[in-house]
Specification:
Length: about 80
């Protein structure tokens, strides 16, 4: 929530953040539905293994954020 509004100029900020947050919700819904498939692939009853694989989403996010540009000292265009 702190980084995303800085990516968009004021005139499109609400649309940009709305699309970004809601696309995250759609991806989360797809992941929840995909967990059933993952349970079948990983022998059906190993919740620890499913938790490990789904927890890797956070690791991927931490790696991606390292490559995001630093916008804290840039002036936003209006």
């Amino acid at each position: 929530p702190l980084y995303l509004p800085e990516l968009f100029p004021t005139r499109v900020r609400a649309t940009g953040t709305g699309v970004t947050f809601n696309s995250g919700r759609v991806i989360a819904a797809a992941c929840v539905l995909g967990t059933g498939v993952l349970m079948n692939v990983l022998a059906g009853d190993d919740y620890a293994q499913v938790g490990t694989w789904t927890g890797l989403v956070y690791v991927v996010g931490m790696i991606i954020i390292c490559f995001a540009p630093d916008t804290t000292k840039q002036k936003q265009e209006d």
